[in-house]
Amino acid sequence: MLTSNINFKNFRIGKIKSIKNFRNEIWFKKIKFFESLKPNYKYSYSKNQIRKIKKNKNFRLIGMGGSTLGTEAIYQFLIHKIKKKFVFINNLNPKLKNNEKKIKATNIIISKSGNTLETIVNSNLLINQRKNIFITENKKSYLKNLATDLKAEIVDHKNYIGGRYSVLSEVGMLPAEIMGLNEKKFKRLNYLINNQNFLNELIKNVSAILKFVKEKKFNSIILNYDNKSENLFKWYQQLVAESLGKKSKGILPIISTMPRDNHSLLQLYLDGPKNNFFTFFSTQNSKSDKINNKFLHKTHNYLRNKSFSKIIYAQKSATEKVFYKKKLPFRSFEVKRRNEEVLGELFCFFILETILLGRALKVNPFDQPSVELIKKETKKILFN
C-alpha cells in the first residue's frame, strides 16, 4: 500500500539505497516550487476572482505542454464532480477558427514566458474583448502586453515554478477551483513526507528505476486500465521526458491503453527486446455496465452477470501474473477512489520520483535547453 487511497505493488528488486541518503537529497534541500505542493501556498489570485469567473459556464483553456496537461488530467480524472465545460486548445490546428470561434466561452490563456508561439497563434484567433484571463509571468512579454491592452485579468505565474511542475500552482488550481473542486485537498506533500511507508516505497521505486537504467532499460511503459487517467499519463510523459532527457540520458515514457493493446503491442512487450520496465495502473470502479445474459451463449457462461469492471480487472490480474512468470519488471498502482486527495498524491509521487531520478542521474530536472533551440530556429524561419 502506498497510501490509504492507493494500493501499490513495487518493483521486485534486492538491495535499495538507504532512506537517510535520499532524505538528505531532497526533503532538507529547499526547492522553492515545493511550496505549491503544500496547503498554505499563497496564490496570486483571490477567492473573489474565482467567484466572479465561476459565473460563466463554458471555458476554453489555451496553452501548451505543462500549461494545460495537468488541468486536462484533473478534468478527465474528476469529471464526475465537475459541472463546468472545459475545452482544451493544446496544439496548432489549421481549422481552429472554423471549429472554435463560434463557441461562446471564457478564455483562460496560460504561458509562463508569455511568448509561447502556439499559444500566441491560438489566442490570436480565439481572443474576445471581454472574457479573457491570462496566467503569465509578471514581466514584459507578448501575452502580458496583450492582456494589458484588453484590460483583462492577469494572474501571476510564479517565475520559480516551471510549466511541467505547475499543476498544483495557479496554473492548475485556478481552473480546478472554477470547476468546483477543493484546491486544498490536492495538497498532499506534508502528509506524504511524514508517511514512512510512502517514503520507503518511493525510495525503493527510484532505486529500482536507476537499476533498470544501468541495465539499459530506458522505456517506461504505462499499461493503463483506466480510461479516465489517459491525460494523467500524458502529463507524466512530459514530466519524465523533459526533466530527464539530457546529456544522452533519459527515460522514454510510453502509454499503452489496456486491454486494447493486448491485441497489438502486448506480444512485443512479452517476447520482444528486454529494454522496458512497466507500470500497471487501474482504479476500483464500483459502477460499470454488465453483460446482457439474454444474449450470452452457454459456451461463455463464465461471463454471466459479470461487470465490465470485473472483466477488465481479471485481464489486468492475468497480465500481471504472466509478467511475473516471465520475470518482466513491473510496479502496479490500484486507486481505491477518485477524488482530489488521490490525484494530489499521484501528482506528488511522480514529481518527487522525477526529481530524485534527475539528481541521481546528474541532470538538471528543471530545464529543457534543447527545446529552446527549436524555438529559436522556428523564429528564424518565420522571419524570412
Explain what the structure shows.
- The protein has 384 residues and is an alpha/beta fold.
- It folds into two domains: 198 residues, Glucose-6-phosphate isomerase like protein, domain 1 (Rossmann fold), CATH 3.40.50; 142 residues, Rossmann fold (3-Layer(aba) Sandwich).
- Helices cover 42% and strands 14% of the residues.
- The protein contains 15 helices and ten strands.
- A five-stranded mixed β-sheet has the order 1-10-9-7-8, with helices on both faces. It has a five-stranded parallel β-sheet with strand order 3-2-4-5-6, with helices on both faces.
- Helix 3 packs parallel to helix 7 and helix 11 runs parallel beside helix 14.
- The protein is globular and about 65 Å long.
- The model has no long low-confidence stretch (mean pLDDT 92).
CATH superfamily of the largest domain: Glucose-6-phosphate isomerase like protein, domain 1
**Integer tally of domains:** 2
Main sheet summary: 5 strands, mixed
**SSE string, helices as H and strands as E:** EHHEHEHEHEHEHHHHEHEHEHEHH
* Number of strand elements: 10
How many helical stretches?
15
* Sheet with the most strands: spatial strand order: 1-10-9-7-8
The CA-CA distance between the termini, in Å, is 57 Å
Class by helix and strand content? alpha/beta
| Gross CATH architecture of the largest domain | 3-Layer(aba) Sandwich
Taking all Cα atoms into account, the compactness measure Rg is: 22 Å
Q: Would you tell me which CATH topology of the largest domain applies?
A: Rossmann fold
* The level-1 CATH class of the largest domain: Alpha Beta
